[in-house]
Give the backbone structure.
Amino acid sequence: MASESYPASATGRVTKGAALGLAAKANLYLEDWNGVLSHIQQLDALGIYALMPDYEDNFRKLTQNNSESVWEIQHDNLELGVGNSLNQWWCSKKISDGYGFCEVTQEYVDEFEPGDPRLKFTVAMTRDDYFGVTYFPSFSSTGYSPRKYLQSAQEVTQKADGDINYTAIRYADVLLWKAEAHAQLNQLPEALAALEQVRARARAQAANPETALPPVTAGTQSEVMQAIRHERLVELGFEMHHFFDLVRWGLASQEIPEFIQGKHEYFPIPQTELDLNPMLTQNPGY
């Protein structure tokens, strides 16, 4: 994560910025919008976090722990248990040892606006270079595969031991929390200003910045919230936030087949814990 005057040997420790970011996220889930903004203001006051000019630098081995990293989980290609196993879970079965557990839907591809460069950084498509081989639709049941956190077989000693870090909180996420908190407080100009910072970074990398990703001009609170939800989906794709966003927005039962509201928001209590504490009560749905 971005430095706070710690030596290089302390890379990976939880910093003040990470704590403030996590506090802001906790307030987001509590719907304490002023609490979200207060913690983000403190995080910004540290003066060390900013969007990277190149979106893809957040997912490259040589540009990790950068200024956009607020809380980054360190991984190394040393032995099983410390590497990033997403490399094996998500990579296509057509590539050595990939499980292909994560596939990209057409609906998700269609969510990207025309000219959004984040699509090519996030999703592998027909004829794309895919970690040293040409991607074909047969590589996935949907014709698409994720790109983030994946590496070629030449970069790692074994597929389940990748050394690209997982960033649990990056500054783009923080800006979108800020936008959401302002929107929920009906402070729409402030919400749109935070949203525009994220879109402007992506726009600058587009093939045609003059026409791609125009600033959002939504006028109502509902329209601004919809724009923020869209932006979270395309900006943070495959960073493992969307399910939890849908749950806290109360949209999971509408968007996820077989999701049962009042049950699937929670993990079941393990039987060992129930055995140890007779005062615990399991959700009757489990």
Q: What stands out?
A: The chain has a mean pLDDT of 93. The two ends are 38 Å apart (CA to CA).
